[in-house]
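Kindly go through the entry underneath: sequence plus fold tokens. Please state briefly how this chain folds according to its tokens.
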Amino acid sequence: MARHNFGYFAHEGLSNMFSHGFMTFATIALVIRLISVCAIPIYAFLLVEGFQRTSSLKNYFLRVAGVALLTELPYNLAMGGKWIDMSSRNPVFGLVVGMLVLYFFRYSTGKKVMDGLIKVVIFVMAIVWSNFILKITDGSAIIIVVTALYALRKKRGWQVFGGCIVMVLCTAFSPLYAAAPITFLVIHFYNEEPGEGNRLTNYLAYPALLLFIGVMTKYII
């Protein structure tokens, strides 16, 4: 009798798992995840552009770091349903680490071999920190793309081509990264002119969106 009941509840669990509502939410989650993956090349490219063009690297770094800190609580709420979650950091921290990598890449010892070795060490350390210590979501992919786009910054065509190759290689971390190369079409047609819009609004858009999603899913839906 107990075995029969267990089979019944297992059957009910599977039925619920493949119900229309469950599949709808799973599809929405997958679409949102794909959108976030496709955003990686764009944010990485904008970071590299900002790094090269900013009049104050210190202020630029503080703004990006501030957005990372501000995003953390809404990110935890949207992703896990709770305000505090130490299991991972939001992807903006990947941009912060990426900017630190670029900052150290600027320095030169005057010796090509030594410079190359130092850059490799910095790059590897950034990957290790983002993955195993800070546990940044998409951290490795962000740092890899930022580094590649910075290295190829003098040629837009090579930036686009190299960025696509890098994102394909990142499928070693997740097959979902295979969708990201399509966004390099946007980068290819970038005209190097500043867009319209308020800077504060641009910086706050991402944490505000996550806060909206988190509040909706936890307290309303």
